[in-house]
Design brief:
4 helices, about 35% helix, alpha/beta, globular
């Protein structure tokens, strides 16, 4: 028997339940990385901090994992930017690479925390709108927009989890101690917020 459409499996475990507890949302950019967190019940996402991207030494990833440890995080959602047609470009590849580095750092620290990629093609567009509505100038946006985008990513994910009763996004597979990649997990499809705005991050400096 399969999923009954409500997100819960009927009679079997076809649909994996999602973990309950604090979670992180991550907005990855070439220059900055925004972090957001949510409460234990997965109701409300709030901004945490903005990290300076350290592509050479990945110090920001170590800070991210430390945040996960200190907050007792049970799941991490990394935004996957796609264009409006759903295709992936350089920004999406950057997000996938970042998510893999997060998984590797979690493994190094013997932390078992699932990392999942979720569609975020419009998160920064929405974040800028929210900041404009709050009366912040464009210069002020840069200080917090990555955190707000991370909030958009995480809020979308936890809202979908509650409405479907199962996990969402594409799982990033971990590697075992010998460095062998584990079996690929089945991606969990989810609807995206539709908008006519242009794709994000192409003009990021």
């Amino acid at each position: 028997m399969g999923d009954d459409g409500s997100g819960a499996a009927s009679g079997t475990q076809d649909a994996a339940p999602y973990p309950f507890g604090p979670k992180l949302g991550v907005d990855v950019g070439q220059v900055r990385v925004g972090l957001a967190g949510c409460d234990r019940d997965g109701l409300l996402a709030t901004p945490i901090r903005t990290l300076k991207r350290d592509a050479r030494k990945n110090y920001d990833i170590r800070i991210l994992v430390r945040e996960a440890l200190e907050r007792g995080v049970v799941e991490i959602f990394v935004g996957l930017p796609r264009n409006l047609s759903g295709r992936e470009g350089a920004s999406a590849e950057m997000a996938r690479t970042y998510a893999k580095l997060v998984v590797e750092e979690l493994t190094r620290q013997s932390l078992v925390v699932p990392v999942r990629l979720v569609d975020e093609r419009l998160s920064t567009v929405s974040a800028h709108r929210s900041l404009h509505a709050a009366g912040l100038s464009s210069r002020e946006h840069r200080k917090v927009v990555d955190q707000v985008a991370a909030v958009e990513i995480l809020q979308h994910a936890i809202d979908m989890q509650r409405s479907r009763g199962r996990d969402v996004g594409d799982p990033v597979p971990a590697r075992d101690a010998a460095g062998i990649q584990g079996p690929l997990l089945t991606p969990t499809e989810e609807p995206v917020i539709k908008d006519n705005s242009p794709s994000r991050r192409d003009a990021e400096s």
